Amino acid sequence: MQRQTLTRFLSRYGPLCLWLAFISFASSDNFSASNTSLIIGPLIRWLFPNTSPEHLELIHFCTRKLAHFSEYALLGLLAARAFRTSPNTTIQRRWFIISLALVVIYALLDEYHQSFVPSRTASIFDSFIDMSGGFTALLFVFWRCRVKGSTN
Asked: What residue spans define the domains of the chain?
């Protein structure tokens, strides 16, 4: 019985913890604008050879902001999955607010962390994009639960 409980706990919270670790890794120098431009730039130039430098810069900027939104949308989904299925009924009933709090706190901590990475720039606007991604995903889960008639 103990092993089954541990397995369920890990299957519930493991993906969430791994994604939090990935977000922290993505806040390092490895995912700085200068590094991601080495991937995005050649790919765009290969797909659209006549892209102007200004458009290339805009595409790179938008891609990075979409990545912020998407990584926190996935965080919201994983948090909802973990907390909605918790054996603790208090956590289960308050899954939305707990998930949202995690998204907001982690978005702010992530940008704070980036302020210490020389090749990164911290921006409260990026935190707002992050929070928007997580909040959008949580609203989707909430809506889907309502449509399906779930009480959680």
From this structure: 2-148
